[in-house]
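Hi! If you just cloned this repository, the fastest way to understand the data is to look at a raw example. We've pasted two of them here, unedited. The first protein comes first, obviously.
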Amino acid sequence: MKNKINQSFLLCIALLFLLSCQSSPRAELFNVIASTPAKNLRSYAFDNTSTIISRVKPAPDFIVSFWNKTDKTNDYSSYAPTQEELRMIGGYLLKLPRRHKEVLQKRLVAIYFINNLRGSGATDYILDDENDIYTVMLFNPNTLKTDLSKWMTLRENSCFIRNAADVKVEINCGAKFTGFIYALTHEATHAVDYVESYTPYVEKNIKIIKEIKAASTPFTKNTWKDLAVPLLPYDFPNRRNITFYGDGGPKINISDALQLYEHLVTTPFVSLYGSMNWAEDLADFITFYHITHMLGQPYEIRYIKNGDQSRVFRPIGSVKVKERFSIMQEFY
């Protein structure tokens, strides 16, 4: 009996040793990040006392390569804004919400413009040697050259299969700004969210990195059950089929657009894009609040059939959206 007990004890010790040698998911993630230059702060020249506009830089090869691989393409390349575009970028940066500017000053490493970038922009996290989170932002140069209403209309229509020639969807956000004001505010909100977790986590890796236990935040509490799962009253028909920029779609016929928008304005979401998950919800919510309430521009979704403006939807004015306005005080 004593010999068997000793053998069992030794077996337990051996198993514990083997388990301790195996990397945890968190350790494995850190190993992957450590071996990826685009995810490491040490790969960048970063000075948190520099002006944010000075962080607009040519994209290094490791960034272009990383994003070509991420988006499964080979046609990304660095774009250099003109002097006129740099002045516009600087002006738009000054218009960001107070909290955004504070976080970007401390944690935004670089701004890159990428030719042929899918969508309006992208924000990614990077880590320093202490595993603190910093961010980089990428933008589509076409946002600098296209007025805001036209850009938002192009974006919105990427959601739909054009199965009905007599139906059109247009977005009216005025013509005072270019599409870059949308892209910048939206992506800057992601940067703030990565650092400060206004949603529980922007993506699953952040949940692991920060060891987040919370299932909700004040912004998501009464709206979301999980990252891409809203509370049942807000999970409207076709929501799960929403895609943008050709990323797995489009899957929804434009002939179904009217019903889609009729459902949208009964929810706390300001846009179809924001209804996809809580990170995009926060980014679009703040962006359209900023465009309408701080920059004084309209935000209307126009459903047009047979050449007549059949319906106009204003999600920013819906009852459920207005109930969330108090949260915006934290950013201003």
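Ok, and the second one:
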Amino acid sequence: MFWVGSRLIQEIMIKTISIVLTIIFFSLALPGCVSVVDKNEAATAYFNLGNAYFELEKYNEAVNAYARAIELDSSFERASYNLARLYLETNRIDEGVDLLQELDRKDEGNSITLNTLAYAYTLKGEEEKALEIYEKVLQRSPYDKNALYNTGILLWNKGDREAARRPFHSLYEIDPKDSIILYNLGLLEIELENREEGIKYLELYLEGKPSDTDAMIVVGDAYRDEQRYGDALENYDKVIAGGTAEPELYFKKAYILLTAIGDTEKGLEALEQAISGEYKEKELYQQLADDPELIEKEQIRQFLSDNGLIEEKSELEEE
């Protein structure tokens, strides 16, 4: 999709529409004498008119213009394709599918048409059908980025993470610096509990996107799960230093400091930040209080109890 970004662009599009309408008028001014060349010129003019309306988000007018272009020249595949895309964008998905299928019959195996048809089936919620079509694309073009990426996403969404790895790794081989691929591959590997691999891809991603705090937190969590607590705290502290940390992050930091690291002073400071930030996940606070690795257990439990975050146990329960 193209979006109008300024009044100047709108003015240019309006002028374009005026010019195109003039061309159409002169092309079809004498209907009884219209030649094939004139019809082709008029079809092209209507196609351009549809594009201009599309830019202005005047979708009904764009549909009419593309339809008129096809009426004048039934072989005008670019107009048919743009009309199909417009149907998809305006939630007329079944009409878009019909048009794309017709285009595929005329030019069987066209990867652009098939990729768009697969996307249409995804919009319809027919993911298996979409996967079948992407597979057809990949049989002809094994390195088609669009088909590889969407295949990976669809497989991932249906829970088949192992199968999703293959297209994402193929994309990484094609372009090892693609930030979108690095990010998704990192998340996927972590979900598969291949945390070292996931960390590797996300750190490569962060080299190009050093301000992405969400990615930093994911990496920090992965380091924590790998018991690399110093590296986890380093990532958490980077986010905190940027001033965008949610109170949950202070709790994660406090948990590490009060269990694995053994720094009561800094741990309590982080815990106070979590509490003052209205982080009130009592189950997690209780988990911290019951953790056998918790240092200064009585002090921390009393602190949590005083803040109403855990229930103070009786002596009998303690025993």
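That's it. A detail worth noticing about the second one: The two ends are 66 Å apart (CA to CA).
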